[in-house]
Predict the structure.
Amino acid sequence: MGDQLNALTTVFTEFYYWVTIVMMFLIHVGFCTYEVGVSRRRNHLKTLMKNAMAIPLVTVTFFLFGWWIYFAFINGPGITGGLVKSPYAEPWNPLMATHLSGVNAGEANSVTAAEAALWHRLNGVFFGAFLLFSITTASIVSGAIIERARSGAFWIVAVLVGSVLWILDASWGWHPLGWMVKLWGYHDAYASGVVHAIAGGAALAFLIVLGPRIGKFRPDGTPREIPPHNVWLVTIGLFLIYTGFWGFYAACNIPLISPATIAGQVTGETWTATTIYLTPTTLSAITFNFLMSLSGGMMAGYIVSKGDPFWTFSCGLCGIIGASAGNDLYHPIQAMLIGAVVPVIAYKLHYFVENRFKIDDAVGAVAVHGYGGFMGVVIAGFMLWGTPSSPYEGFAQVNPLGNFAGACLMFLLGFIPIFIVCKILDSIGLLRVPAKVELEGVDFALNQNFLASVREVGDAEKAMIK
């Protein structure tokens, strides 16, 4: 009976994560739709392809080394130990491939029999779920830099953010044995910091080096508003992102786990869902809090922006992100209030930074994801103060200092490396398109052969009509 239950649990878990992958892919449908809607007509094609091609680039690099980083670096840079051996995440391992007959311990390069039994069914779907987090983190940067960044520069940054930086911070603060959880009591159940703060930091670094769009600021330094080209596409894109976030939230959970396996800290015969930290939660709990934080954000966004649809829906997303760090434990009213307050502050900060520092963030990505994610982690440290960060004995409790330090680390881990990389790319002329190209529109200026072919076909058609 026990073997049958374990087998059923494994099959259910495999299907559970497979479904979350499908749902999370809608986030990227939403990103593409949303960014095209924000960009002006002469930049649509380049905007679409710049973002879309991050998907295969991050996928391949995450397979080659990103997945291994998550398991190997949980001890940090020598903080609580060295590298952790993770053969099942090495790209040449049989468990990182198709193996319908299963893989035994000997064939799996030092993997134990128990690990082989687990990983031969679940490795692919775990990999896929984390990969979609990776692509999301990289894609957050894409919208901020539209209409003037070179695609190649963004793709370099996308690989660095998606397959190195975010998964490194996930190893530290989003793994049940991560050193930040153990020593700092870091708690970020649905990735306010792990995904969003690091992406916001990376986007801000890119924007500082890249500079504003031509014409964004008047000669006296005051900003011009460049409204979305198509508000309907923006609306559809953001609602697709909301939909994909259901999969995002579900993938942050482990659907079934025996309490007896959690270091003996949880007793009882029932099986339960847990967060990524192996602390108890339910899909029911996150459903309450997801909807309430979304609602708080949308209502606050509508009020603070005076009914602007772009910011109303963006603040809805920021509301989710702001409450995500603690949405496994918040009361729904807490989730709603946090989801309302964080977007208002992020909205105000967006315009303050734009006016004061001349930062041209075309979609408000730094505000929605960076400021929203940072505040969400800090707030969770206060709201959940004293809560166990882990079921493992000896781990620190959730506390304000640990979460504040974690939020700073996440933001800076995105900001500093990307600032350096962008400075290098800028120094060799590979960061920004030439001014002439930007003024003409990147679609037209960079697709002269295509346009010449269109004109040639058109001339031929006119000749036939005559």
Q: What stands out?
A: The CA atoms of residues 221 and 356 lie 9 Å apart. The beta strands are 253-257, 272-275, 280-281.
